[in-house]
Amino acid sequence: MEIFKGHIKVDKSTYQTNVKNIYAIGDVIGPPWLAHVASAEGIHCVEKIKGLNPHDINYDNIPGCTYCQPQVASIGLTEAKAKEKGYEIKVGKFPFMASGKALRLVKERDL
Fold first, then answer.
1. Rounded to an integer, what distance in angstroms lies between the CA atom of residue 45 and that of residue 39?
2. Which of 35, 22, 26, 34 has the alpha carbon at shortest distance from 7?
3. Which segments within the chain are labelled E, that is strand?
4. Residue 45: CA count within 13 A, CB half-sphere
5. Looking at residue 109, what is its pLDDT?
6. Average pLDDT per run of 10 along the chain, which is 111 residues long?
7. 3-class DSSP state for residue 103?
8. Dihedral, CA atoms, 25, 28, 30, 36, nearest 10 degrees?
9. How far apart are the first and last CA of the chain?
10. How far apart are CA 52 and CA 58, in angstroms?
């Protein structure tokens, strides 16, 4: 089985490895390492095996999270990736101190 950068290499349109009838999904094929992505990959893979025609997974449009306090979520391209792809972008910023939850966490921790 072919390994690339520590992960099993697959054809992302079918999730088949370079070994006939062997498929891989989820963490073993590399980032993003998220349960909801692995679930979508599994469904896609099985539907392909059954001869159905599922839509490919758009890896640029996957919700993600950063495990911190307060919690942070993201979706889509990073600023750097958007610029790299030639998009004209606008950047918005929101101070955490304007968030009631962030203020409460600061007080709890005496930060």
1. 10
2. 26
3. 3-4, 7-8, 64-66, 72-74
4. 19
5. 65
6. 97 97 97 94 98 93 81 85 94 80 70 53
7. helix
8. 50
9. 50
10. 18
Judge contact between 42 and 25, C-beta under 8 A. Answer: yes
User: pTM for the full model?
Assistant: 0.73
Residues 24, 2 contacting (CB under 8 angstroms): no
pLDDT at residue 72 in the model: 79
Please tell me the predicted confidence (pLDDT) of residue 102: 72
DSSP 12: T
CB 54 within 8 A of CB 44: yes
Q: Cα 43 vs. chain centroid, distance in angstroms?
A: 16
Residue 60 C-beta-side C-alpha neighbours within 13 Å: 6
